[in-house]
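Troubleshooting entry. The earlier prediction with magnesium ion gave an output that would not parse, so I re-checked the input for stray whitespace and re-submitted. Clean input:
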Amino acid sequence: MTILKVKNVSKTYQSGSKKLTVLDEINFDIQSGESIAIVGPSGSGKTTLLGLCAGLDSATTGSVVLNGNAFEKLNEDQRAAVRNQYVGFIFQNFQLLPTLTALENVMVPLELKKRKDAKEKATILLEKVGLGDRLTHYPTQLSGGEQQRVSIARAFANEPKILFADEPTGNLDTETGDMIEDLIFDMNKDQGTTLILVTHDPELAKRTNRIINIKGGKIQEASYG
Ligand SMILES: Nc1ncnc2c1ncn2[C@@H]1O[C@H](COP(=O)(O)OP(=O)(O)O)[C@@H](O)[C@H]1O
Ligand SMILES: [Mg+2]
């Protein structure tokens, strides 16, 4: 079953009088349960593409269909509902809410789903990423790597059908990074979570089923690993 369909997607920004084409006619399909790595140089449009696929942002032209929902036909509230139902997103820059503690940040998606066990579940997830002793810390009181792990626990909290991860181990030491990688791939294996990750790490990319190579906003080649 196709869980994500990206068809003729372009994204342009107007900068002054110039039009900047960040993504140029991108096409690919992803099947449910697959794991995919998106690789490419800095500035090639990887983060932009991930945001469009997750319905966080709108394409300028083209179509993105996630689990049967065509984002271009939905308004912002409807897109948020689709994200809340199906999507986990690990942001490159974490995007934690600064006024909430680590625990409260992870509880947000659980409370949106009105889960009564939000606190217990969020605690378990933070323990899993090695932050059991940082529950009441605010984001400014956490290191970059710790904030990244809170962001990861929050993405897991949704029990997403599809997990997007933007350089999920970019701020972690090797040992912690390996632990997080294993958690992500376990989710793919045990729960069938579709995994789409952006990475600079060739070893991490090789662990996925398929690598999409993007350069200057275009797909270069899709190789099967
Ligand atoms: N909101 C924006 N307005 C204008 N240009 C943007 C915006 N967001 C991203 N860009 C540009 O789009 C290009 C791709 O960015 P990005 O998707 O973050 O690349 P990557 O994640 O591959 O490093 C960059 O050149 C960046 O400057
Ligand atoms: Mg990026």
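This one parsed fine. The helical segments are 46-53, 76-86, 102-112, 118-128, 144-157, 174-191, 202-206.
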